[in-house]
Structures are given as structure tokens and as C-alpha cells.
Task: structure prediction
Amino acid sequence: MKVIDLNADVGELDPELDAAIIEVVSSVSIACGGHAGDDATMETVATLAAQRKVRVGAHPSFIDRDNFGRTHIDVAPDVLREQIREQIQRLAANSPVRIAYVKPHGALYHAAAADEGIARALVAAADGLALMGQPGALYLTMGQQAGMPIIHEAFADRAYSDDGRLVPRNHPGAVLQEEAALEQVVSLTRGEVRTISGGLLTVRAQSVCLHSDTPGATALARRIADHLASEGITVTGMRAVELAPDAWLLFTDEPIALAAAIPRSGLEEVVPAADCVLVQGPGAAAIARNPPAPARQKQHAELVLPAQFDGEDLDEVATAAACSVDDVIRTMLDTAFTVAFCGFSPGFAYLTGLPSQLHLPRLERPRPRVPAGSIAIASGYAAVYPTDSPGGWHLIGHSGAVLFDPGTQPPALLTPGTRVRFA
Result:
């Protein structure tokens, strides 16, 4: 299966346009207040994307609503870092799903590609999230050196110069007409693009951007999707990253379903994580080149864990969420969680489904010891600590359930896909 991610910048202009674009693309970069957007638009667009299983990214910019973020703003790097971080966190607070990546907007996109101080500020603000941008951008290089996932993007509707840069918008032919854009997208899936002068460039891109402010963007997006389908190319947010010749990460919005669909022949490990699946073994490269469609998920058993909500951080969590302690407890009891993946320590399961008002960052200073059985939340997840260990999550209660026992098979009570409730 040949795949390509189709992304669009949204939350900027027209809610009806955004809704139509989301029907077609597989990733959306949402304006988060710097050049456009507010809490209401972020929540609306992110919710639509979540319903369509479209990957959600943050689209921060210089603080410049008057010029739509298209003017370079001189700002100290440490101030810029906090401005970008606040925009990303604002989107995270209004999104029902985790932020998958960061793609800077407008003048910030271009400045971070060349200016070391600005690139460093962006990388620091992204705090481990994937970074999206053009190949060769300085912030992508710095992010990769810091161990952050990188998404190279190309453009469906913009002409390229011979040096690989986009032709400036004010240049004749800079914005491609519909037929030319269709041809360019298919060329990009082959790893090449025809320049404005007729030359041929090699372009490695996992994602192709369609600008929502391009005239006729909705119709063009639909034609691109249909054209790709006719060429046997699937539009999906899934992408592959090589860790070693026999170890690959397959990024996807459905890691459990993808892991279930991967044949085990020629593989030593298939491990689902937050937004990817690790495949390791002699057959890993072949899987990465032709990943299967995510399997239809079977209904997993539901486990009810006994819980007492009396954690030492409960009051602070309620304050940060702008609600009462009773509201926090009621939310935890009413929520149906799902184990997304396991890690950190044996039996430690990351539970998804936590409502967005309880999405809080990890503690600035981790505790040297968190007691076994502690119920905790952080970074959009809930968890129960299976054993005594260090930890930086907010402690809101405890459970007497035994989550890890080496003498049982399997030793971990919670496995990916298991549904969990607290009672």
C-alpha cells in the first residue's frame, strides 16, 4: 500500500471551509491564537478532526493577528519560546485528542528554517512533539538532533524554484492551478517535483500540504484525494521512520489496530505506543514500505479497578482544571478509559480517554517515590502505578488492584486495547 499524508492549515478563515477540508485530508495544522483562532475555533476544528480520525497538529506563529502572521517580528528567543509554547498548550487544552505535531506558520515557518535562535526556541517549545516542515529547514535538523520525530512536507499547490524553495507568492505562476497541482501531488508521491523552470528535483516528503486559502481549495482537495485513490495511493496520517535497518516506527492514529493487522512472520517485535508501532526484525523494512490497513478492532474486555480518590495532588488538579474536587472524581468515575500502550515500568499502562479539562503537564520536579497503586494523570493520560517508582504525574487517588505479577500469565493485568473503569 503506497501512502501519503495530506495536510491543510485550518482554523484561520472559514468554519465551513475547514469542515469541508477535514472531510478529505488526513492531518490538520490548527491556528492556535498567534495569527488567528480562539478557544472556540480550536475546539470546533479539533473536535471535527477527532471525529474523522484526522491527525491534529499545532500551527503557532509570531504574535501578529494584524498581519496574519506573515510579518517577521523581532522578539527575544526566550520570549518567543514561551509564546509558542503557550499557543501549543492552548490548543492542547481545547482538543479532545493529543497534539501529534507542530508546524509553524507564515513568517515563523521561514524564520525558523534559517535562524538558529528562532529554530532553537521552536524546538524547545515543541517539547518532544514531532516537527513538520520542508526538508533542510534548520529547526528540523535541530529537532532531529534532539531526538524528536520529523515530518518532511511538500506542497501541492505551490511552484518550486530550482534551489528547492517555494516560488514567492508575488511571482507569476507561484500558485498552481488545479490540473498542475494534481500532477504535482502524484509526482511528490514518487519523490520528485518539476520546478518552475522545467527542472526535476528530488523531494522526500511524508506529507503534502494544501493551503486552505488557495482559491477553490475544497474542490481541489477532493480532486486530489480522488486522483490519488485512482493511482492506488492511500491518504493517511501513517508514516514510517527508520531507526535501524531492521527497526522501524510506523506512526498512525490507530496504533492498536495497526499492530493487530501486522503479520508476525519475519518480525521479532510488534509494539504499539502512543501514536506509533515499533516493528523489529528482518521483515520490518518490508512492512514499513507496504503497511497493512489497520485491522477492525475487536471488542476487548472491560476491567473495573477499585479506586479511592484521595491523592495529595487532588486539590491542585481541581484548581488547575477550574472545577471542584467532586467534579474531578465524578469525571474519573464516569470515563471509560482504554489502554493505549504500556511502558515506563513493567505493568505501567497509559490510559486514553481522559477529558481535555484534565489534560495537565507533568510536574516540573518528579517525586523520587510514588507508591504502588497510585492513580495519576499527566499529559492527557491516566495511569495506575503498578510498583513503587519515581514519577512526575499528578496523584489523585489509589487502587488496590494488582497490576503486575511475574507469576501470572500474562504478568501485566492491563494490556493494549483493554477497557478500564474506576469504581
